[in-house]
Structure formats: structure tokens, C-alpha cells
Specification:
The structure is a homodimer of 345-residue chains. Chain A is an alpha/beta fold and 345 residues long. Chain A has helices spanning 9-16, 20-27, 35-47, 54-61, 77-91, 106-118, 136-143, 167-180, 196-211, 228-238, 254-266, 300-316; strands spanning 66-71, 96-101, 123-126, 147-151, 161-165, 186-189, 221-222, 247-250, 276-278, 295-297, 327-330, 333-335. Chain A has three domains: 9-52, lambda repressor-like DNA-binding domains (434 Repressor (Amino-terminal Domain), Orthogonal Bundle); 64-164 and 300-330, Response regulator (Rossmann fold, 3-Layer(aba) Sandwich), CATH 3.40.50; 167-298 and 334-340, Rossmann fold. Chain B binds a DNA duplex (30 and 30 nucleotides) through residues 6, 8-10, 18-25, 27-28, 30-34, 37, 52-62.
DNA sequence: TTGCATTATGCAATCGATTGCCGAAATTAT
DNA sequence: ATAATTTCGGCAATCGATTGCATAATGCAA
């Protein structure tokens, strides 16, 4: 790469025999420049192929018009959809996105957050990694005067803005649906219980059982079965029980549900006749398996837009009022497909 | 948000009765500071919760340790995997990623690129949008001394670093495979021909036909069938022909192939018996459909890593030699599944 | 014509970190 | 003991854009 000297406002100023102040003002469309000089400056800037140095500008202005995002995995459908949603909403306001992935490791998450603080982002949007236990790094974000928005996987140890799904309700509805379909021994595949979302989903499951007076059977509740492999493994055990479940709610993800489906099919269980299956997230593939998988849609892209708008709204009345921890809860939707149609309606 | 004053090197300097120079040197682990003072500075920085202002640092240093990425859609599997790959490789070197999506619109692509230039990114990684015709904005990147790496969807109008798939070869192999399976009237669903990747895939298709002495039948070549809907529509027409094809190569994407499969099944065509289907990209769902879909894996995440490494490599010998346009071609892999097993082997 | 407001522009400080240059102090060599 | 070298740390300029303050120029009214 040849190192080229980039045009600055001083170059423009020099060429026109004026000062950089005026150039800056013209470029920012200030009123304190003569219309004609403004036009001349704009024309010259164009000619010299001038591009504002955002680094300098932001340094001076004290903000960066940048939002940092930290997610466990960029290429997981749910997250990439949320990001796409945020991007869409922020793009219009000329904001940039710096994206990091924590790869489900808190130590990397901490590094990411620190980098974003260094970058002077105006806001950090985060969905915490699975192994999180300490949240000092998030407190740190607030201490540096940076807006913090948690979404989906949130921690209650901090009072921040949050955009979440109503996991409990969604889970409750899913399990209720299965019960109404006639399933009676419904197994739950849990996610790591240190994450709130998975605790909530469990609560929803328990509430549904209670509502329909079904017993809670411990051996049907499997801890930590949140990947396809773990889901498959759990299913192998469950279906080998003396009294196997007649339905499995993979509350952790559709991937887990997929593992269930594959094992069940391999073991000769008829889905949904002998075994009902429900996943979580509405991944694209759930529509394509045979049978198609009942699941829960989280409106991921809408969630992204909501996050962005929440930020902008907070910015507007930032002087007005004291910060109140604000929580926006989006109600997910149960998508009923073939894998839970016991009655075959 | 309360506005808080952030700790600067001056605060640290003042507290220790030294100058900011020393603090800066200590923080950068320079040799020109006494070991003891260095330790003291580091300790004080920690105590005051100091975070370097990367904006100021980068402004001074003239680079940003940031790579900008522009893709048509963030949440498309292929792209999010490439991004994840880039992230993984750059994270170790403390680089940041700014990610933009062009939403398949060149005008937005241009805005994205300009933003990235403003941000003083060190490198721009781009896969161009479908409606691209003019590439002045990319030339502009080079003119500003910014490294430019094109990937997947590249334009030959510019001599830049490129990381691509060998689309022609992959396409050739896919079609050859179908012919060897006994399919004789193979239809091609084309993508927009202004994109090189789709032209190359067409060439591969034609070459395979030629190699096996099969005629090129115009009515079996469908322009612009690159979404699920367009693929479905094209299939409806193709299968209604007097002499319908006995195989369809959806060279554009697996989504298109999915459209084909759904329509074919709905119209009562047996796949793969009466109709062979091959997609492109190895989307996760291709494994899950019934029958599973034969497709081509592009090693997307590996591609991302390759892009990052290419950049780092170029950085290292940037003074050494004149820039040579370098093209890295990754050979994709044909994944043979059920949808093309005419002989049922 | 004088006085006052309005508009346009320049001056210089500022944002925070980095770095070349210089000199003082400390160490080593002669 | 003196000279030569190394180590350490300060000074001040710099990166490029922004902005409060001051001043000059212009317009308008009295």
C-alpha cells in the first residue's frame, strides 16, 4: 500500500485562502458561513475528494456515534438477526456498529467490553455469555458513562435497560399446547440455569404442569442439554427409561430439538404419534424437517430494531429525567407445526 | 446517563507528579521508563480505572486497527460465517470489526464504504451487492490508501486482493456428478449475470455438458432464479414443459433449491427418482430436508480466516514490494446427498 | 453621520495520546 | 578523576476537527 496523504480541512482552507474554522463550519452546515463560501467549500471538498476524519471529529466532540455489540456467536441465527435489525435502525441515523463475539467465554466477553469502552462507543448492547458469574465489567461500562442495553440473555445483577422475551409465558404456552394435545409425560431439556432465560423457561414449564395437575417427574428434567449433541444424548437416555416420556420440550434451542428428533427417529419412535417435540427459536430448518418442528418465534429482527430505538429514545431525554431501569418485554409466538400434533388434527 | 469525566493519562500524571509522556510510555510498555515508575503508573492506572482513549491514540498514530466489512446481508448464513471467521482471526491481533450491510443496494453500499473511509479503517473487506455497475467507490478506497479485499462476489474492474471460490470448477463437478448419475436433461437456475460468481457457475455447467456431449437446451436455462420464490416459480414452468428436465441445478443458492424441491414434491415429481436437485452453499437445512439436498460447501468460516490472514500478511511486507493483485481461490467441495442419487446407490 | 445589530470570519484552545528531541542524572569505561 | 555512554523523563509539537470568543464588515435605523 502506498501511503497517501489524505485531504484535511486545512488543505481546503489553504486552497481557498480561508481558515479551517470556516471549512469546518461549512462542512457541518453551520449558519455562520456565507452561503457562497459554503458552496465553494463544498465544491472544493468534493474536488479534493475530501473525507472527514471521524476519529478527530469524535475525539473533539466526545462521542463516537458508534454502538458496540457483544454476542456469544455472530453466526447464530437469532443473534445475526438481532444484529441485522439493529443495523437497519441505526444505519438511518448514521451510527456505526462494532461487533464482537464472546464465543460463550466470559473472559473474552470482558476483553470485548473493554475494547468497546476504549473505542468510546456511545452504547454497548450485550447478550451475556453462558459462563458468566461476575458482572463487574458491565458495571464498568456504566461507570464510564456509556449506555448499556442488555438483551435476551440478561443479568439482574445490574439495573440497566433491557430488551427481553417473555420466556416464561412462551414456555408456558408451549407446554400447555402439548398437554392439550394429549401428551402426559412431558420431558424438559434445560439450559444452563445460571442464565435467567433458561430459568424462566423452566418456570413456564412447571407452571403449565401445575395448571393441568400433572406431576413433576424429576427423571424427565434433564440439565444442560442445550446443543444438538447434548439433546441427542439426553433423548437416548430418556427413551430408554422404563417409562419414557411421550413428549420432549427442548427449551434450549431448535438445535437441541433436532437432536431429539434424529435420535427418536433412529430409535423407532414415531413423531408426533409416540413422541411430541417442541423446540425454541424458530430456526429456519424447523420448517423443513419431517415432521416439521413446533417451536417458538422470538421476533429476533424486531428485537434488534427495538433495541436501537430504545437507545435513541433514551438519548433524547437523557437530561430530562433520572435514569430508570427500563425493561421491554417482547411476547414470543408459539409456532405450532407437525411435531406436536398427537391428535393429528 | 450521568456524564462522567473519564480518567486520562494527565490525571494519572498529575497524581504521580510526573508528565503524561511517561505515563504514555509506561502504558505502551516502552523501554524509556524506569521499571519502578512503570509499575507505579500501571498500578495507579488500574486504581483510577483508566481506559485508553483509542480515538485519540488512533488519531495520533494514523491508523485505527479496525477492519470494515461490507456484505449484502449480515444474517445470511454464508456471510455471517465469513464474518465469524474474520472475527476469530482478527480478535487475536486486537483488531476491531465494523460491520455494515448493503442490503443488496449499491447506493447503500457506497454510503457504507464512505463511512468506513471516514472511520479511517485500515482495511475494507467487501462482497459487492447484486445491482452493482459502477465501482468508483472501491477505487476511492484504494485512493485513500486503504487496503481493499474483495471476497466471493468480486468485480474484475479493480485489481485488488481477492479471496474467492472456484465457482466454475465446483459447478462443473456438480453437473458432472448429476450426469454420471444418469440425468440427461439438466436445467440450470442462473443468478444475475452481472455477478461474476454466477457467470462462472454457468460456465462450469456448460463445460460439463460439453464434456459429456450433452446438448445445451435454452429453455432449460432460467435467468435470475436466485431466491426461494424465484426458484419455485421457475420450477413450476420447467416441470410443465412438454419435455421437462430430469434434474435442476440451482446454481444460485440452497434457498432456490429448496423452492425447487417444494414445488417438485407438490407437483408429484419424485426426487431424486424423477428429478435430481442440486443446490449451492451447504446451508444447514440441506441436510434436513427429505430428501436431503446435494450441494456445494464453500468453507465460509475458513474463507473468513483466509481473508484476515491475507490482510496481516500484506501488512507485514507492505514496504517490501510493489502491490501485486493477489487472488486466493478456495476449492469448494461437492456434498453429495440424496437429492441426486438417481441410481439409488 | 453616528450608533447598534447582524453576519461572516479568524484566532486559539481543546479533545487525549504519542513521540522526536533535548538535557539531567546515573552508570560505566578509561 | 574525568570522559563517554546509557537511562530516564520532561517539553512541546502533532494528529484533524470543532467551537467559544473576538473582531471586522456590512446593513439598517435614527
Amino acid at each position: 500500500m502506498k501511503i497517501k496523504k489524505r485531504t484535511t480541512i486545512y488543505d481546503i482552507a489553504e486552497k481557498l485562502n480561508i481558515t479551517a474554522s470556516s471549512v469546518s463550519r461549512a462542512l457541518n452546515n453551520s449558519n455562520y458561513v456565507n452561503e457562497n463560501t459554503k458552496k465553494l467549500i463544498l465544491k472544493t471538498a468534493e474536488e479534493l475528494n475530501y473525507k472527514r476524519n471521524t476519529l478527530a471529529s469524535n475525539l473533539r466532540k466526545g462521542h463516537s456515534k458508534t454502538i458496540g455489540i457483544v454476542v456469544p456467536r455472530i453466526n447464530q441465527n437469532f443473534f445475526s438477526n438481532v444484529i441485522a435489525g439493529i443495523e437497519e435502525a441505526t444505519y438511518q441515523k448514521d451510527y456505526n456498529l462494532i461487533i464482537c463475539q464472546s464465543s460463550e467465554s466470559q473472559s473474552k466477553e470482558i476483553k470485548c467490553v473493554n475494547t468497546l469502552i476504549n473505542q468510546h462507543v456511545d452504547c454497548i448492547v450485550i447478550s451475556v455469555s453462558v459462563d458468566g458469574t461476575d458482572y463487574q465489567h458491565l458495571q464498568n461500562v456504566l461507570d464510564h458513562g456509556i449506555q448499556l442495553i442488555q438483551f435476551d440473555r440478561v443479568t439482574d445483577e445490574l439495573e440497566t435497560l433491557k430488551v427481553i422475551n417473555d420466556n416464561e409465558q412462551a414456555s408456558f404456552e408451549a407446554v400447555s399446547h402439548m398437554i392439550e394435545q394429549g401428551y402426559k409425560r412431558i420431558s424438559l431439556l434445560e439450559g444452563p440455569q445460571n442464565l435467567q432465560i433458561f430459568r424462566q423457561r423452566k418456570t413456564g414449564y412447571l407452571n403449565a404442569l401445575k395448571k393441568y395437575d400433572l406431576p413433576i417427574i424429576d427423571e424427565l428434567i434433564v440439565e444442560n442439554a442445550w446443543t444438538k449433541e447434548l439433546g441427542a444424548e439426553a433423548t437416548r437416555k430418556l427413551l430408554s427409561l422404563n417409562e419414557p416420556p411421550d413428549a420432549i420440550f427442548a427449551s434450549t434451542s431448535d438445535f437441541s430439538a433436532l437432536g431429539v428428533l434424529e435420535v427418536a427417529t433412529a430409535m423407532g419412535f414415531k413423531v408426533p404419534g409416540q413422541l411430541g417435540i417442541c423446540g425454541y427459536s424458530n430456526e429456519a430448518f424447523t420448517e423443513l424437517t419431517s415432521p416439521s418442528i413446533t417451536t417458538i418465534d422470538q421476533f429476533s429482527s424486531y428485537m434488534g430494531k427495538t433495541i436501537a430505538n430504545l437507545y435513541f429514545q433514551e438519548m433524547e431525554n437523557k437530561e430530562d429525567v433520572e435514569v430508570v431501569p427500563k425493561i421491554i418485554s417482547i411476547k414470543p409466538k408459539l409456532i405450532i407445526r407437525s411435531s406436536t400434533k398427537k391428535n393429528g388434527d
